[in-house]
Amino acid sequence: MKKFLIFIIVLCANTIFSDDHGNSNRNGHEMHTFVHLNVTDPVAVVAAMDKFMSSDCGKNFPADIGLMAEMINGSSSSTHFVIASYPKLENYDEGLALVASCPEAPQLLRELAATGSRPIKNMGFVPVLEVNNWTMDTAFIKYDLKLNLSNEASYAESWANLMSSNSAFENRSYGLNRVVFGNDAATHFVYMGGGSVTELLDNVGSYSESALTRFTRRAEGIREVVNTSLIIPVKAWPGK
After folding, report:
1. What is the bridge-based pairing of β-strands 64-72 and 223-237?
2. In the chain, helix, strand, coil percent, each to 5?
3. What structural domains does the chain harbor?
């Protein structure tokens, strides 16, 4: 139950909407959190989330919520994660106060536990680079990284240059996020989106050799890829 209580608290923090290189955030979110779960009944989890988000508590929740399926995720036991995206940092505090006072929050915990879902870990992020609207994409590749903060700006520039060099990603989302809470396994992650798994893999294979060489030379020695996962969105619940 303690981990499910953390699940509710962590719903108060996340982001993945934006445009332009750097720290710009077109859609106005300032923080993200992921709550990773081992789910055996995704339909029941969606039903529990539907019920909560249609309640008075859910309707007033100050974040955009989404459920993502981790279709391929290495050795991690996590099968899904819930993402909560907050327009402002103070919305996190509002969310904390809300779930501490509404009866629907503990009810959601009980219903999630009854589905057999098991919390694995939770993490908080801030966006460093976010380009285009990820909600228009239906498949993502996510790379978890270990990256020294002193190399963050250099890596972000190199990543942005690599992605912008590939016209296949002109209208697709990509970005870099820094882990601010729960960084025991990774310090950052980068992602790229596509309209399908097939399209995404085709796009990943279409970089020019020169662009890849430049990126590899600049990234070599400053970052370590610790895991790569395939992410498919399941359902989204817009905030108030």
Report:
1. antiparallel
2. 40, 35, 30
3. 2-126 (3.30.70.100), 129-231 (3.30.70.100)
Report which of 78, 80, 65 is spatially closest to residue 29, judged by C-alpha positions.
65
Place of tokens 């309209």: 195
Tokens coding 221: 């020695």
pLDDT of residue 89: 87
pTM: 0.85
CA distances from 162 to 26, 31, 87, 214, 236 (A): 21, 25, 28, 8, 30
3-state helix/strand/coil string of 7-34: HHHHCCCECCECCCCCCCCCCCCCEEEE
Residue 28, φ and ψ in degrees, nearest 5: 85, 10
pLDDT in tens, 171-195: 999 999 999 999 888 999 999 999 9
